[in-house]
Amino acid sequence: xxxxxxxxxxxxxxxxxxxxxxxxxxxxxxxxxxxxxxxxxxxxxxxxxxxxxxxxxxxxxxxxxxxxxxxxxxxxxxxxxxxxxxxxxxxxxxxxxxxxxxxxxxxxxxxxxxxxxxxxxxxxxxxxxxxxxxxxxxxxxxxxxxxxxxxxxxxxxxxxxxxxxxxxxxxxxxxxxxxxxxxxxxxxxxxxxxxxxxxxxxxxxxxxxxxxxxxxxxxxxxxxxxxxxxxxxxxxxxxxxxxxxxxxxxxxxxxxxxxxxxxxxxxxxxxxxxxxxxxxxxxxxxxxxxxxxxxxxxxxxxxxxxxxxxxxxxxxxxxxxxxxxxxxxxxxxxxxxxxxxxxxxxxxxxxxxxxxxxxxxxxxxxxxx
Length: 369
What we know:
Layout: E1 3-8, E2 14-15, E3 31-36, E4 74-75, E5 84-88, H1 98-111, E6 116-121, H2 124-136, E7 139-144, H3 150-158, E8 162-165, H4 170-180, E9 183-184, H5 199-213, E10 219-223, H6 228-242, E11 251-257, H7 262-268, H8 294-303, E12 306-310, H9 312-324, H10 331-343, E13 351-355, H11 363-368
Parallel strand pairs: 5-13, 6-7, 6-9, 7-8, 10-11, 10-13, 11-12
Antiparallel strand pairs: 1-2, 1-3, 4-5
């Protein structure tokens, strides 16, 4: 079993497990979970994300929450290039990859004694938070984007959460954490309401891809907003190399909409931070964040990857091609396929596209297209 704690990305100061929503108390930068790996880390048997419990931050089994998340298919699809593989995260309990995130985040909340969870969402994040809060016996409040699908808000309510449509959401989120002792099931960056734990659930995507392929792919393409969806798998691949399961890591590529592309702009200028994107516009609401966290940008640099973009027309074309092959995804997921098709990766290089959420949860969007 690996022992874990928290450490600052920048000043490298270490801290005991706990909630630090404003980041590192020493320098104000983002924190992440780090591990002291023992000699007993093996390729584990079983299914789901908790098969990898020695590489996750919740040590005691009675704190762990699960609805059967993980173990999602890795597929080739008819009519698409043979070197493209698709990690179908729509097979998770609430039909998105957010279930990995909240399984770990809310398990950490229970480990640390929290009873109420709060989150901000465009849809998928809130549905998953509500489901896992229900499984944990926790109260849940979700601040919803004004364009979040009605269907998903109803799902949150059925799970027992209070779903509140409001803009701006940041101030309400900060107040809930500061004044109400709520657990923010939020991304690791950007600050000031950050949480280091949920991203650890995304590491298991990398572990599963490695097992399913029998090797590490050449490229992995992830849709990104705050950036946890890319940094988490990257961290997982790095751990596989550190533990001796592989001697290589993939190039990580962040996929964004052309109408909201702060990572693309930052990557092109080789900046050390993610810029703000004024007036973001895209059909891909789930990744329409004005900015993002710099750990994902650093992961792109460190892996030799890139930041890619697709127009809404390219995204919808890719969505239809995926649907024609049997997988219905939301536009934010189709962005990865659109970017892969436009990038023209060599046919002898293996590319894995992360499909993060089901199109069935976005009825207004499907009707519009």
